[in-house]
Batch of 3 targets.
Target 1
Amino acid sequence: MADVESSLEFTTSLGSLPPPRTRIFKIIVIGDSGVGKTCLTYRFCAGKFPEKTEATIGVDFREKLIEIDGEKIKVQLWDTAGQERFRKSMVQHYYRNVHAIVFVYDITNAVSFRSLPSWIEECKQHSLGQEVPRILVGNKCDLRHAAQVGTEAAQQFADLHSMPLFETSAKNPSHADGDSHSSNSDHVEAIFMTVAHKLKSQKPLMLSQPAGAQNTVTLQSRREEEEKGGWNCSSC
Amino acid sequence: MNLKKSRNVGASSSLNGIDKQDAESKRKKKVAEITQALSVTPVDVAALRRMAISEGGLLTDEIRCKVWPWLLNVHLDNMPEQLGEVDRENNKDYNQVLLDVQRSLRRFPPGMPDEQREGLQEELTDIILRVLLKNPQLHYYQGYHDIVVTFLLVLGERLATALVEKLSTHHLRDFMDPTMDNTKHILNYLMPIIDRVNPEVHDFMEQAEVGTIFALSWLITWFGHVLSDFRHVVRLYDFFLACHPLMPIYFAAVIVLYREEEVLDCECDMASVHHLLSQIPQDLPYETLISRAGDLFVQFPPSELAREAIQQRSQETASSTFKDFELASTQQRPDSVLRRRRREQQSPPAAEAKKGTLVAVPSSARRFVRLAVMGLTVALGAAALAVVNSALEWAPKLDLHFFP
C-alpha cells in the first residue's frame, strides 16, 4: 500500500538540504469531501498516485521542493478536510499567510461544483481576497462518461472568478477510459507548477494560448510550454 | 531523568525465558481477576476499570466483549434481540457516512476477503445511521466511523450498536455537536498540559504557532485513525473506556512530550512542527505512555487546567491580538508567575537530576518524572485507581452520571 504520508521523505531526497533562504509557497487545497484533494496533493508531492486514501481529518500537510529558473522553492500543500463542520471552526488557523488557493470539485458530482461559491466565500471570510492567486480544478475526468459538470459551465464559473480552470484526474492514467493519449500524471504536476510559476513571477496567471481560445488548459498546451522551457520542474 | 524516550522501562520483557514465564503467569493472574470481578454480584466494575487501565489492558477481544459493556454501563439484558432496518435514504448524513465508510479499507485486517469486508462495511454504515437516527441531537463527523469500526470489529454489530450509542451520548458527545466549537475547546487542554510538564516544548510549539489540529484526529477517533496496528487501538480503547472522557487529550500530550527531542530539533515553524507531530510513530511504548497519561491526569486534573483552556479559546477568537494578550496576561496569571519563580529557582543543579542528559530540567518535569517512575515501579494500580476515582470528580462540563 502506498504510504500517503511519505511525501516529505520523497521530497527531501530530491537534493541535499535546501539553501537557507529557500522561498516557501504555501498553497491551501479546498473543496467538498471526496473530490480528491488528498489524491491530488499526494500525487504532486510523492510523484505517484496513492493506492487508497482515507477521509482527511483536520488538515494534512505535504511539501515538495521544486526548481524554477534555477531557484529552489518549497511548495507546501495544506490538504483540508471536506466536511463542513471542520472548516467552520477548525481549519481557519491554516488559512493564515496562504499564498495561493486551489479549489477542487469532482466533475461527476454536481453538488461539489455547486458548493464552490461557499468555498470562495469561505476564503473571503479568512481575508483571502482576489489578489491571492487561485485556480479551479475539476477532478476525476477519467470518469468522463459519468460527468455531471460540463466543461463550459465550469469555464464560465472560472472566468467569472478570474481563475484558470484545469480538468484532470488524480487517478493512475492506465485506468483512464477516455482520451488515452493524455497523461494525467503530468497534468497534476503541471497544475501545481502553474501556481508556483505564478507565485514566482507574480504576473497575471495567463497561459500562452491563442487569444479567444478557451482558457481550459489542455495537455497539449502544457507540452508546448515545456518545450519552450517555460516549465522547469525538478521531478520531471 | 527526563520524559523523553525510555523504551526499556515498560517493554523489556520477553527478552529471556524468565521474563516470558513471568509475563505468562501475570497474564493468567489477570484473566482470573477479571473473571472473578465479572462473576460477583454486583459485578465489580471498579476492578474491571483497573484491569482495563493496568498493563496489557483487557488482553483479548473475547474479554473485551464481556467487560466493555460494564465500562459503559450498558446492560446486555436490556438490549433488543433484533436490530431494526435502517432507512438509509432519509438521513442527512448518509452521503458523508457512505463516502467515509467506503474509504475506510485500512481499518480492516489486511488479509480479510473482500466479501467479508464489504459485509462489515455495510454493518458499519448501518450502526452509524441507526445511532444518528435515534439521536437527532448527534451530528456525524468524519472520524466517527473510525471509532465505530473498532467497536464493530471487536463486538459484532448488535453489541457494537448499543455501546456506540452510549459512547456517542457520553464520551463523544462534545464532538457530535452541530459545530466543532466544543471539540476545539477540548483541544485547548493540550498546550496547558504540555506546559506543566515541559515549558520548553510548550514555548517552542507556541512560537511555531503550530496550533493543535495535528492532534484533532487523535482526539476524535481515539487514535483509531492514526494507528495501523489494531491491537494498539483496542488497548487504548480499554484505557479510554475506563477513564475520564478527557483522557485522550492527556494521552495526546504524553505522545508530544515523549517526542520532545524531535520537536525541539525541528525547525520552529508551523509546517515543520505540524508535519512532525501529525506523523505518529507506530512503535510507541504504549504501556509506559498509558501510565504516564494516568499520572498526568492525577497531577493536573482538568479542573486545574480549565481556566487556561478557556484563556486559549479567547486567544484564538482574536488571533491578531494574540501576542499582546499574552504579554498583558502573563503578569496576571498566577500560574505563570509561579512558573517564572520555579524557573528562577532552578539553577544548574539540574545536573544532579540525571547523568547530563539535559541542561535544565524544569522542576515540574522532575516532579512528574518521579511520579511516573513511582507509577511504573510501585504498581500501576495506584495511579490507575486514582484516575478511576477522579473520573467522578473532575467533570466540569462532561456528563458522567453513568460512572458507577
Note: The CA atoms of residues 95 and 233 of chain A lie 26 Å apart.
Target 2
Amino acid sequence: MKTIKVNVVTPDGPVYDAEVEMVSTKAKSGELGIMAGHVPTVAPLTIGAVRLKNGSNTDYVAVNGGFLEVRPDVVTILAQSAERAETIDLARAQAAKARAEQRLQNNDGSNDTKRADLSLKRAINRIQIAEMR
Amino acid sequence: MASLRDIKSRITSTKKTSQITKAMQMVSASKMNRAEANAKAYVPYMDKIQEVVSSIANGSTDASHPMLVSRPVKKTGYLVITSDRGLAGAYNSSILRHVHKTILERHKSNDEFVIIAIGRVGRDFFVSRNMHVELEVIGVPDQPSFADISSLAKSTVNLYLNELCDELYMYYNHYVSPIQQDVTETQVLPLADFNTSNATLTSYEFEPNAEEILEVLLPQYAESLIYGALLDGKASEHSARMTAMKNATDNAKELIDSLSLQYNRARQAAITQEITEIVGGAAALE
C-alpha cells in the first residue's frame, strides 16, 4: 500500500516523523481520514487523538488543537503541544484532570471556567490515549 | 605602600571571586548549549507555520482577518524580553536603552503605549520610570517550554484583538554567535509582510473555509513568534552571561598577577631592609 510521510511538530520540537498508510484525526468540521495522494488541504483540529495506521500497527498521538496541513507527499500537523501515547505521563494527566474538575466545581467566573474546561478536555484526551497504547 | 598582609588578603579574596565567576561561566556555557539546541528544535515548527500562513495569506482567497489588516494606531504595544537576573554584561542594558530611546522618540505621553515585559530587569526598569506595564512574566525557566509562555502570548495577542493596542513590536537580543548578540526589533502585529518569494506556494483546499482557519492559525502564529523570540533571547542571555563571566575571570587573573608581583616586591624590600638593619647593627658593634 502507498504510504505518506507524517510530521507532528510542536514548538518544543518534532514529536512524530514516519511513513504511514493512513492518518485519521478529528478536525473542527468532523472526522478526517487522509491517505497518500490526498488533495492539498488545511484544517484546524480539535483536542483529540491522531491515529497513524501502518499495516497492522497503529500509533496514537494526543494533540492539543493546532491544525493539519496536507500536501501531495507529506502531512504536517502543527500543534502547540502533542504527545505520543508512549510518552504520556498517566499520573500527571490524572492529576491535571482532578485539578480541572475541582476548579470547575468551585468556580463560576466565565474565564476561569473556560480554561478549566479546556484543560479538563486535554487531560481526558491524554488519559484515553494513554490507555489505548 | 600596602602592607604584606593587606596584599595577601586581597589576593586570596580575588582568587575566590575568580573561582565563582569561573563556575558561573561554565554553568552558563552548558545552559547556552541547551538553549541553542532548544532554539534549533523550534526551527522546523516555525518554518512550517510560516509556510502555511504565507501561502494562505497570499493565496487566491480574499480571506481577511483583523490580524492581517493595519488600522490607525492609537496605542502601541512593546514586548520586551530581558533576563530575571543581572551579571549578564550588556545584555539587559543594551536592549532597555534601545527600547527607551525608541519610545521617547515615538511617543509624547505615557498613554500612547503599553509595555509587555518578560523578565524582572525589564519590568523594574519600566515600572521605575512610571511606564505602564500591562502584562509581565517573571521567573521564566532557563529552558522554557511553550507552556511557560503560552498564557502571556495568548493575552498579548488578545490585547491586539480587543483593540487595546493597535500594533505590537517585540524587542529581544538575537543570538548570532556566543560572542555576538544583536538587539532586534520586529513588528509582530499586524502581521504585515510574508516573504512571497517562497516558491513552494501550494493552493489548498480549506476545511471548512479560509476564514475559520485564519481564526485558528494566526493567533497560533503570533504566539509562536513570541515564543521563538524568547528562545532566541534565552540563548543570547546565556551566551552574554558566559562572556561576561569569562571577562570577569580574566580580569581577576590579571589582578592576581599584578598583586602577586606587588607582594613579591614588598616581601623582597622587607627582607632587604631587615638585612641592611642587621648588617648596620653588626657594623655599629665593631
Note: The CA atoms of residues 108 and 114 of chain A lie 9 Å apart.
Target 3
Amino acid sequence: MRVKCEIDGKWCDIPDTISRFFLKKAMIYVCSMDRLKKPIIQSVIFVNEPSKCTIAFIAKRSSQIRKNLQNNPYLTLTLDETHLKDPLQHEGIMIETTTRTSTSQSEIQQCYDDLQKKYGIDITAKILGMEIITDYIKIEATPTKIIHWEGPFYRKFVCTGKKN
Amino acid sequence: MSSLFQEIKHGERIKLKLGAMQPLKKYKFFQEQVFEGFWPFNRFQSPANVFLLLLVYFIWGLCLYLIYNIPLSFMIAGSCGAFGLFLWTIGIFRYANALRNVEIERINKVNQKFLIGFLENLFHPSSIVLGVFIFTAVLTYLFTSPSLGTDNFLTQLRSAMNVESLPPLLMLFIFLLIFDLCYRLGLSLYLILTQIKRNLILSHYLNTPLLKSHFSPIDIRNLEGSDRIHFVSICGGFTLIPLGLLDPIILIVLLIYISITFILSTAVLIHLRFMYLRAIPDGIMKLIRSAKFAQVGTIRSGKIPHLTPTLFIFNGRNFFIATSNRSQKVKNLRNFNKIAILIDSQNQGDFTKSAGLLTIGHARIYGYNIRTGVGYFLILGFRMIRTYLLFQLKYPHYINEYLRGTKDLPRAWLVFPIISRTIIEIIPEEFYLSKASRSELIKF
C-alpha cells in the first residue's frame, strides 16, 4: 500500500513503510535553527494529514521554535524505531520540511481539536497546558525530502511532478 | 524528574535585573593601573602595551650591554627574564579580561554573590603584598649575600664586569626587572590561593542542595577556561631558568616556586572538573546514564537542519558520538561546527512524563579521512582508544552485531576506526531541560 499526497502541485508517492511511522510514534523530534545558526531539538505531539502530506503541531507564541522559524522556515523532523541490541533493525525517517506558521484562531482551534482527537483531551491538556488558545500558533510543516533508513540502508524520496 | 524541574525553575526565578550596572569593569590589577597611568603604555591596549614593555626592556638591556660591556650570559639571562615577564603579563591580563567579561546581569543572585566575592578577592589591593614580600626577600639576599660560599647574581656580575659597584643605570634596570618579576611571582601565587579559596566556597555551595541549583555546569566550565589561561601563563616561569643558572640559590628557589604553583594550579583545575560534574543535577545524570540513544542535530548549507538518532557516550565532561567519516553529519560539521544533542527519557508508558536534556555546543571531528584520522590519533590517540572502549562497554551487543555482519554491511558501517568511522566530540556550551512536548526550554 502506498500513500499519495499533493505538495505544491507535486505528487509524493510514499510507501506504507514510511507512513506507518506516523501512526506508531506519539511524538516527533523537530530540529530548527536559531539566529546564531545553532540547531535546537525538541519533541512535540503532532497530527498529520496524509492527503496533504503535512505535519502540524502547535507551539506557544513566545516559544523558541516560533522565533527560530520566523528567521528560518526550514524544519527537520525525525521519527525512529530504535533497537537496543541489533543496529541492523534500527529504522526511521528524517523529513526535511518548509514550514508555515499560522496565527489564525480557526486553524489553531482545528489543530488543537485534531490533537485532542488523536491523544485524548486529558493528555493534550497535560502536555500543552490550559492556556487560552490565543497563546498559541499553529506550525504546518510540508516535506521537501524524506530519507528512510533501515539498518545501514538509506532510501531518499523526493516529491515529483507527476501523478502516476 | 518533576522535582528536578522545580529545582531548576527555582534557580531561574530569582534572576536579578541590574540594568546598566557594570560592577565588573572596575576590577583591575596593580599592573593594569600602572599601565593606565604612564605614557606611552596608556596609549595602547593589552597586549600591545605589554609588548611595548618587552621592547623597552630589550632596548634598554641592549644599550646597557653595548655601553658597559656586560657578559653575554647575563644579557641572555636578562632577555629570558624579560620574555618570561612578557608571557606572564599577557597571561594574567587575558585572565583578568576573561573574568571581567562575565555578563553578571544574567547570573542569578547566589551565583552573583559568589562571583563578586571571588573577584573582590582576586583584584584586591593586597594582591601586591606577596610580590613585595618576594621582592624584599630577593633584594635582602642580593645585597647581604647570604649564599653558602658562592657568589650571588650581583657579585658575579660585578666581578665579571671588573668594577667595585655597578653603574646606576644598570642597577635601575636590574631593580625594575627584579621588581616586575617578583610582582608576577607573588601575583600568580596570590591568584592560585584565591582560586583555592573560591573552589572551597563553590564546593560548599554544591554540597548544599538548595544552593546547588544556582550553579550551572557551564559557569564552572567557564571558570575552568579562565583558570587554564593562568595555568598556561605560569609556564612563562620556565623562561626564568637561564636567569637562575647564574645563581644556584635563585635556581633552587625558582624551581621550588614553579613546582608548587604548577601542582597547585593543576589541583585547582582538577577540582573544578569534578565540580562541573557535581553541578549537573542528579536527575539529569540518571537520564544520561540510562539513555541509549540521542538525537543529534547539525546544520546543512547554512540553513537546513539535519536530525538523526545516534548512539552516544558521556565521559563525565563531553559527549561523544561515532559515525561514518562520510556521513552527512561530518560534512555539515566541517562547514559549521555547531551541534545539538537531545537525550530524552522516552517514557513510552506515559510520554507526558518524558523529559529531555538538550545540549548545544561545538563539535570536534577526530578525522574525516584516513590522513586526518591518523593525525588525530597521533595527537589524541589515548582519548580515542578510551572513547572506543566506552562505546564497547555501553553497547556490547551493537559492536558484536557490527563485527558479525561485516560481510553484509556497507563500507561506511564497517567498524574500522579511522578508516571508515570517526568520533565526534560534542563540547557543551549550553544546557537546556525540555519536558515532554512543551515548547519551552529551561536553561540551567
Note: The radius of gyration of chain A is 16 Å.
